[in-house]
Amino acid sequence: MPIRLKPDFPATSVLESEDIFAIDNSRAEHQDIRPLKLVILNLMPNKIDTEIHLLRLISQSPLQIDVDFLKVASHEHKNTSKNHLDKFYLEFSQVRESCYDGLIITGAPIEQMRFEEVDYWSELVEIMAWSQTSVTSVVHICWGAQAGLYYHFGVEKVPFEEKLFGIFKQDIEHHFRLFRGFDDRFWMPQSRYTGINEEQVRQKKIKVIAKDENERSAILISEDEHDIFLMGHFEYATDTLEKEYLRDHERGLDTAKPANYYENGKIYNYWRAHAQLFYHNWLNDVYQITPYRLERIRELQEERKLRS
């Protein structure tokens, strides 16, 4: 089934050129099904690239999906046009009373700042608190994962000596249902200056379900299975790391070439299949557990909180 997008949404033409099926609202409304409703809190500077990256992945599901894009109101967005944001993005005040089947919180290139120094931190905290009662399942990505672990569990960031940058092997620690169809080892892009306090993770109600070869947590899930934390970027396109590398050097940074990325000068994508499978499994999982009537999500989440 397709993603339902507005006909003039910029990602639509890109997805159509890649033979990814999308339909307009008028046709979708004639289909007698209840689509999954997702909301993506897009914190990345280049919002259009991130839209395309994530829509590529969630389009692989056989389910019809409605997607809302969310922006933080307490931040000046300098890298995406105001027209695009006004036309295609909502603010939290517009969704506060709504329920969603799934929420994706993206990363942001601000991991070297203290969380409380981020100008939209209080708004993000409000959104993460809302997600616990109004969303069936939440995926946090990279900085979004670090922010979620800090807010929900008090897990602190730790700085790396140098940027973790490249494609890295990950080992499955627990064969959780999100890994249906996965090989025992998979690759995931990483691009960050900080990690998480692994000792604190072991003391919290968090399960590490995948680690890299250096025993760093790669994918984590809360004990109640409501929140998923991806430390890397499954959503990255093949050339995303190269663009970041060139951008870093244009800024005068001495970032090393991304590890395990080039072979004889050519870029090889080692993560695409597992990325698509992961999001396919997540959407299928959400579909199995989310109520048909969205307003029942709050009732079910209250029951979940009582059980935990």
What's the SSE pattern? EHEHEHEHEHEHEHEEHEEEHEEHH
Fourth CATH level, the homologous superfamily? Class I glutamine amidotransferase (GATase) domain
Largest sheet: 12 strands, mixed
Taken as a percent bin, the fraction of beta residues is 25-35%
List the domain count as a whole number.
1
CA-based gyration radius = 19 Å
CATH architecture: 3-Layer(aba) Sandwich
Helix count, per DSSP? 11
Q: How much helical structure, as a percent, in the residues?
A: 25-40%
Q: On the 0-100 scale, what is the average pLDDT? A: 90
Broad CATH class:
Alpha Beta
InterPro entries: Class_I_gatase-like, HST_MetA, MetA_family
GO molecular function: homoserine O-acetyltransferase activity; homoserine O-succinyltransferase activity
GO cellular component, one term: cytoplasm
Protein name: Homoserine O-acetyltransferase
Can you walk me through this structure?
By secondary structure, the protein is of the alpha/beta class. The protein has a single domain (32-307), classed as Rossmann fold. It is built from eleven helices and 14 strands. It has helices spanning 10-17, 25-28, 47-58, 82-88, 92-95, 121-134, 143-153, 198-202, 240-250, 272-289, 296-307, and strands at residues 3-4, 22-23, 36-41, 65-71, 89-91, 100-105, 135-141, 157-172, 185-196, 206-212, 217-222, 227-230, 262-263, 266-267. The strands form two sheets. Strands 1, 2, 3, 4, 5, 6, 7, 8, 9, 10, 11 and 12 form a twelve-stranded mixed sheet that branches. The radius of gyration is 19 Å and the shape is globular. The protein starts with a strand and ends with a helix. 39% of the residues are buried. Residues 21-32 have low confidence and may be disordered. The active site is at 142 (acyl-thioester intermediate), 233 (proton acceptor), 235. Its EC number is 2.3.1.31. InterPro entries: Class_I_gatase-like, HST_MetA, MetA_family. GO terms for molecular function: homoserine O-acetyltransferase activity; homoserine O-succinyltransferase activity. One of its GO terms (cellular component) is cytoplasm.
